[in-house]
Amino acid sequence: MSKQFTELIPGLPEEIALECLTRLHFSAHRVGSHVAERWRQLLQSRDFYYHRKQSGQTRKLACLVQSLPVPKEPTGSKPAAQARYGVSVFDPGSRTWYRVDPIPKYPDGMPLFCQVASTEGKLVCMGGWDPASYEPVRDVFVYEFTTQRWTRCQDMPSNRSFFAVGAMEGKVYVAGGHDDSKNALNSAWVYDLSSDEWTELTRMSEERDECQGIIIGNEFWVVSGYETDAQGQFKSTAEAFSIDSGEWRRVEDSWTVSQCPRSCVGVGKNGELINWAETDSGVRVGACGVNLGNRSLVTGSEYQGAAQGFFLTERREGQNCKSVKVEVSDDFCTFVQSGCCVEI
């Protein structure tokens, strides 16, 4: 690692130069990459990401798959086109919003029902339905915040929709969902970002369609879902994959039976699963929660057809969770399909 960090800034010892660049705001990384070849290699390296993380210089942002503002018809009564989706980014520190450039293959909107996850400061988008044909796709794209570009990666091994996803330490785990024939799946795979390769994992004990994935400690949890012959009958159980042992274990009574877990599974202060839709009356419909460390961004509506609400919840030692409404401009107050935390 020391060789990579030598002579970063002329006249400064490498340790001081490294600390200077470590404190560079992530929004300046793209410009910094053009200063010198050594800077580019450093800023885009995996080692630098972990160095920033260990130094406490990373920042946690919420990346949301969110419907884009739709122009109205001349009368102003109805939308002029169907809903399209993009990636919105919310910085809870500055309370600012911005939108990521679209995926080049899908300039008019992301694949419908695609899944997003993040690891090592990158955003991974996979699967979903082609927004024009509604056919399932196996595309995998990775967004690098340093270069602010999307890269197309190795396709998913097979078509699957409404699957669970979770990511940690440079790998993305997927499980469950259903195939092209609407058969629920119990298969699971892991994608390695560094090698751009997929590896099949041992199967879950049960089929789980429309399940939700979440990382808890060193485990990938697949929450609820239903079997092929029991469509819509969501299970109360979950299955947890140990990243150390490579084995699954079944977790009983982890979710409220018959409740859809999509986008609304969170982890409480005692490590138990919580339903974001039950945390505030303003997000009871279409709830989506993103854990941002000691606080979370939760979105949803009070009732069907109501305006979207955006809330920051904060957990403090010895105190109940406090929820504060976030004021959002018209460009970013639309429906949130799903989201994840990106630590940059």
Entry keywords:
344 residues, mainly beta, Neuraminidase, 4-stranded antiparallel β-sheet, 22 strands, 33% strand, disordered N terminus
Question: What does this protein structure show overall?
Answer:
The protein contains four helices and 22 strands. The N terminus is likely disordered. By secondary structure, the chain is mainly beta. It folds into two domains: 52 residues, no CATH class; 284 residues, Neuraminidase (6 Propeller), CATH 2.120.10.80. It is globular, with a radius of gyration of 21 Å. The protein is 8% helix and 33% strand. Strands 3-2-1-22 form a four-stranded antiparallel β-sheet, with no helix packed on it.
CATH superfamily membership of the largest domain: Kelch-type beta propeller
Helix fraction by DSSP (H/I, runs of at least 4): under 10%
- The protein's oligomeric status is single chain
Distance between the ends: 20 Å
- Overall outline: globular
Strands side by side in the biggest sheet: 3-2-1-22
Number of domains: 2
CATH architecture designation of the largest domain: 6 Propeller
Q: Output the helix-strand order.
A: HHHHEEEEEEEEEEEEEEEEEEEEEE
Strand percentage, roughly? 25-35%
What is the strand tally?
A: 22
CATH topology group of the largest domain: Neuraminidase
